[in-house]
Amino acid sequence: MYPQVLLHIAGAWRPAAAGETHPVVDPATEEEIGTHPVARQADLDDALAAAERGFALWRATSAFERARTLRRAADLLRERAPEIARVMTLEQGKPLAEATGETRAGADIIEWFAGEAQRAYGRVIPARAPNVTQLSLREPVGPVACFTPWNFPINQAVRKLSAALATGCSVVLKGPEDTPASCAALVRCFLDGGVPADVLSLVYGDPKEISDYLIPHPVIRKVSFTGSTQIGKQLAALAGLHMKRITMELGGHAPALVFRDADVDLAVKVLGGTKFRNAGQVCIAPTRILAEGPVFDAVVAGFAQAAERQTLGHGLEEGVTMGPLAHARRLPAVSALVEDAVARGARLVTGGQRHGNKGYFYAPTVLADVPRDARIMNEEPFGPVAIVNRIDGADALLAEANRLPYGLAAYGYTGSQVSADRMSSELEAGMVSINHHGIALPELPFGGVKDSGYGSEGGAEAIESYLSVKLVTRAAL
């Protein structure tokens, strides 16, 4: 039912050197379904040695051959999608349709970066002297340490792996301990597609122990992390101490502005659908819905209907549209935020409690008229909770949208070109989507500003941080 999870180091799928394991739990049943190995320093040393050997080999492989290898991996991921998606649902909880979509989208991401591998161009710079040639060259930065979360076991890892491998870097991937098997299946697709064994290692274990060892290690030249802002700041500080290049995709608290002239049906349909996807455990999910007075009641009612339409259950069951939270820690965390908001005067429109008594299910929830000092107005909820507040006027809407230190994604709905232009230029977010949901396609930049991190995990911009620029200037003899 659930595959054996192993580390991959230097071409071998193996248990941890010390033999330690940690349980993997199905969040819909709270039952242990398997284990993952716990890597310690001996395992990490082996992975680092492999990464050093692998980098020497992979950087010398032509961009054409790297691209061909990535395309084979994409084909394998598509072929294996039904099996991988089922495993993802067992360990993460999301409905099978969502897990299948995530896996297939991962193949598209690999293909995109395969093309980018062949377009990592340098340039010739016109010289001042007739006998001088000046070249700006692109070279892979070196072995990369990647840290990926549990909410999208394929999606988050595949962006980092594809960008690193496309540019000629080797990788040590610290996979998500809550969802290890689907991430391992992704790694297997790369290896079976032809990525040399030493080029890609996969480890699990204590996140702090692994990051504290890998990031300062002289073999590692770049760090890519997706996770909370709190942990991201700590890792960025550690990387800075050792002059390591970093990409940080951190937390969000995305505002969604609904102007009085918006198509409310469209806004509610799109925002409601994205809010409750993956039980709200999405960094770019709309969380603060800011609606002008004339449309406020319709937006509240629409979100309540979207919440109440959700069918909760095990993700492998027919007709289920929302699974559980991914692990036990999320239930009290989400509950505490909702209870705090209600205690401070927020109106509980629907939901607001645990669903059932087995599994980590939390009812889709809508809060209205939430005071600004409520914790949930300032802390990322990362659960199936939507906040709908009444705010009038473009200036006030934009001010509230930009109030928090987060700046990952922002959304807007309006029938006015003036309002659309203001959102485009004034919203402080790395990604702004107006009158549709147009974020996270492989060809688009993906990243935030302010406390939501820096660097891109998508589009042509994503490969920049995996490449170093070398100037070569030479005079003819």
CATH superfamily grouping of the largest domain: Aldehyde Dehydrogenase, Chain A, domain 1
Report the CATH topology name of the largest domain. Aldehyde Dehydrogenase, Chain A, domain 1
Estimate nothing, just give the exact number of structural domains. Answer: 2
The low-pLDDT segments are none
**Largest sheet, if any?**
7 strands, mixed
How would you describe the shape? globular
Structural class: alpha/beta
Give the beta-strand count: 20
Helix count from the secondary structure assignment: 13
Strand % is 15-25%
CATH architecture classification of the largest domain: 3-Layer(aba) Sandwich
Q: What integer value in Å does the Rg equal? A: 23 Å
Distance between the termini: 69 Å
Helix content: 25-40%
Mean pLDDT: 97
Major β-sheet strand ordering: 14-15-16-13-12-17-18
- CATH top-level class of the largest domain: Alpha Beta
Write the layout of secondary structure elements.
Blueprint: E1 7-9, E2 12-14, E3 21-26, E4 31-37, H1 41-58, H2 63-79, H3 81-92, H4 96-117, E5 123-124, E6 132-140, E7 144-147, H5 155-167, E8 171-174, H6 180-192, E9 200-203, H7 207-214, E10 222-226, H8 229-241, E11 245-249, E12 254-258, H9 264-275, E13 286-291, H10 293-308, H11 330-343, E14 347-350, E15 365-368, E16 385-390, H12 394-401, E17 409-413, H13 417-426, E18 431-434, E19 453-454, E20 467-475
Parallel strand pairs: 7-8, 7-10, 8-9, 10-11, 12-13, 12-17, 13-16, 15-16, 17-18
Antiparallel strand pairs: 1-2, 3-4, 5-6, 6-20, 11-19, 14-15
Helix pairs in contact: 2-4, 2-5, 2-6, 3-4, 3-6, 4-5, 9-10
